[in-house]
Amino acid sequence: MTIESPIVFDYSRVKIIPGWTNFYELSLLGICAKLSPKNSNIIEIGPFCGRSSRALFDNLNEGCVLHCVDLWEVKDLYSLSNLDFFKFDVDQESLKKI
After folding, report:
1. Partner of 41 at 20 to 30 A CA spacing, among 16, 35, 59, 65?
2. Which residues 6+ apart lie within 8 Å of 2 measured at CB?
């Protein structure tokens, strides 16, 4: 017996955004957004580069609003010198899809 999920998560828009959130966690965030009531406010604390934000936003229900709160300060662990492992190449066409 095969059980099909009523929620289909499209990973293509988040895979080019750097971050620590894996596919399983992104899927869970997408499901949470899909299951939230219409006209809800969703608050994300500390989105970093927006990987999880994209997963939430892509799955919002009608009238829902996503609020992202972060200091977006570059220091300590997140200093520019330590972000080398987040460097990635994105062509202009991919950026238009974000």
Report:
1. 16
2. none
Give the count of alpha carbons within 13 A of 33, CB side only.
27
Q: Are 10 and 47 in contact (CB under 8 A)?
A: no
83 versus 51: the higher-pLDDT residue is 51
Task: Check: CB of residue 33 under 8 Å from CB of residue 62.
Answer: no
Contacts of 37 (CB under 8 A, 6+ apart): 61
Tell me the C-alpha distance between 17 and 26, whole Å.
Answer: 12
pTM of the model: 0.68
**Residue 85: per-residue pLDDT:** 47
Q: What is the band of 36 on the pLDDT scale with cuts at 50, 70, 90?
A: very high
Q: Among all chains, which residue has been given the structure tokens 């990987």?
A: 51
- Looking at every residue in the chain, the average pLDDT score rounds to 76
Burial of 76 (0-12, 13-18, 19+ CB in 10 A): exposed
